[in-house]
User: What shape does this take?
Amino acid sequence: MTENCSPNPDVINPEMKLEDVRYKVNANTCDGYGRSTASGRGYNAERLVNAIFHESGRVFRASIEPYVDAYVPGEISYDVEVKSCVARYQGSSTSEPGRYGQFRIWKHHHDQLIAETTLSDSRTAIYFFVVYSVRYGIEEEVGKLLVPAEVVDDVLDNWSLEEHVTMGEQKTRQISWHLLLKRLGVSTDRFKSEDIIDLTNE
Assistant: This one.
């Protein structure tokens, strides 16, 4: 358990990993709006963020809005947007790794996430980023990161228009997890070695 002297919620189970969620009840399934195009691993990342904050480590998913994947109560509560990606895409050959995996952030969701929480002193918008590798079809967590949405906003640039299957044409930013860590001042070694990097109190 991590120590936290701030009014923000405590991370109670930082040691829980994405692969732990896989073997829980209702894991690996997609439900709700957009389930036909969703990824089971992405939904498991949403379940994971609830589990690390829940006293019993309970795994569940409770998406509130398209841009709020989890709500964590507290003196200052968290509205959480969850993003996950594979560590490396498959390369052109088995001997060469592909490029670094990327998080995709939709601008209108990002703006709404920040705008709604700035209206309240008792709510904070954060991102929960999870990176995983895949071995024999099973995901293994590489690392995870909690970051205030306003901090993420400072490192995003070069938005581009892209067509989405349900939202139509929207501005989006794809950023590799490697570049995101660099811009946040987090080393790759630290990201991989610590149970969780929590920048909400730094």
The longest helix spans residues 40-53. Helices lie at 18-22, 40-53, 107-118, 149-155, 177-184, 188-193. The first strand starts at residue 70 and ends at 72.
